[in-house]
Amino acid sequence: MIGFIWQWIRSLAFVLQMYLMMVVLGVVFTPWAIVDRRGAFAGIRTYCRWVRWTADWMVGLRSEIRGPIPHGEVLVASKHQSFFDIILICSVLPRPKFIMKRELIRAPILGWYALRIGCVPVDRGKRGQAIIKMLADVKAGVSGPGQLIIYPQGTRVAPEAWVPYKVGTALIYGESRQDCVPAATNVGVFWPRRGIYRKPGTAVVAFLTPIRPGLETDAFMERLETTIETASNALMAEGGLPPERLPHPPVRSV
CB of 175 within 8 A of CB of 83? Predict the structure, then answer.
């Protein structure tokens, strides 16, 4: 019990300084970001690396990136378990941009930087319109060049839960005619969707073998889901999640 309380106190201190540094770095990099988008990318990358570094020595949460880091114009379809997988991805991708829920635009600092780097806001509650908007923005190139990141399940998913994969990823894959790089993670084992407590260990984001353009929607979705879920389950088991608690999605028929 004493160990848990001490870890919770360390986690609280980590979370407080993490949000304080978001404000500090956001203000420091704003002048550069206003005149040049490279300043926005530099500010985000600096912040993400700060969070990774402080998570290591403050709460014992190390982090690793595995697999070749995507460059150029690609679609990155990632498992999403908590804020920390965003941190890991943005700490290494040269020009990340996200398909994100529109409410985040109103978030102080975060919302402005997201728009500055070319993130694409959509209304999650209007699924059909959201997909049309995503496809139009991708086709028009209004979000600028870079690595477009989408979460195929559409939300953060706890390590033990399973949420169906949404077809929007396949539609963007087909429309963009770009490689799709699946990304698996186990960060939710250590950093929950909500709450203060951070568990020591090694959080991983793994970039997997790209899916080349040309697959039909059903074949693409089957390969994407199988690839991400299998790799994520392996990473979560590596992180200490018991096998009986791993999610087991139903078999997708193609």
Answer: no
Rounded Cα distance between 43 and 17, Å, is 17
Judge whether 196 and 89 are in contact, CB under 8 Å.
Answer: no
How deeply is 72 buried, as exposed, middle or buried, from its count of CB atoms within 10 A (0-12, 13-18, 19+)? exposed
Q: E-assigned strands of the chain?
A: 61-66, 74-78, 96-101, 120-122, 147-150, 180-185, 201-207
Model confidence, pTM: 0.91
Q: In whole angstroms, give the CA distance from residue 164 to residue 63.
A: 27
Cα 218 to Cα 216: distance, rounded to the nearest angstrom: 6
Q: Could you tell me the residue ranges of all domains in the chain?
A: 62-245
Pairing verdict, β 201-207 and 180-185: antiparallel
Asked whether 143 and 120 are in contact (CB, 8 A), the reply is yes
- Please give the CATH number for the structural domain made up of 62-245: 3.40.1130.10
Distance of alpha carbon 70 from alpha carbon 53, whole angstroms: 22
Backbone angles phi, psi at 126, to 5 degrees: -120, 80
pLDDT in tens, 60-107: 999 999 999 999 889 999 999 999 999 999 999 999 998 877 777 787
